[in-house]
Request: fold
Amino acid sequence: MLSNFLSVLAMTGVEPLKAGTVMGLVTIDWTLLFQIINTIALFLLLRHFLFKPVKDMIDKRQTMIADQLDDAQTKNVDAEKLIAAYDDKLQNIEEKGRQMIREAALKAESRASEIIKDAEKDAELIKKRAEKEIGREKLKAVNELKEDIVSLSLLAASKVLEKDIDQNQHKALINQFLDEVGDTTWQN
Reply:
C-alpha cells in the first residue's frame, strides 16, 4: 500500500520523500511502519476473535432464518392443501345438503299426494256411505209415510164407520167393495 502511494507520487513528478518529511497529517518514518504493522495485527486479531465469531453467528442466523422460511413455506403449502381439502369437503357437504333437501321435498310431495289420494278415497267412502244412509233414510221416510197414510186411512175409516150409516149407504159400500175386489184376482 505504501509502495503504491510512493509510485503514485513518483509518477506525478513530486520529489521522493525522505524520512521525517511531513505530508499533511502523516509523517513518513518508522512510526508509520509501526502503525501499519499495528493496524494489520489489530485487523488479524479482530478477524480471528471478532469477525469470525460474528460471521459464524451471522451464518448460523442466516441458516436458521432460511430453515424457518423453508419451514414456513412448507407449512403454507400444507395449509393451502388443507384449505383446498376443506373447501372440497365443504362443497361436498353443501351438495349433500342440497341433495337431502331435494330428497326431502320429493318425499314430502309423495307423502302429500298419498295423503290427498287417501283423503279422496275417504271422501268417496264417506260419500257412498252418505248415499246409502240417504237411501235408507228415504226408504224409512217412505215406510213411515206409508204407515202414517195407513194410520190416517184407518182413522178415517173408523170415523166413517162410527158415523151412522143407514141401510142404503151400508149396502152401497159393500157392493162397491165387492165390485172392486171381484175385478182383481188374488196373487199368491
In short: Residues 58 and 64 are 10 Å apart (CA to CA).
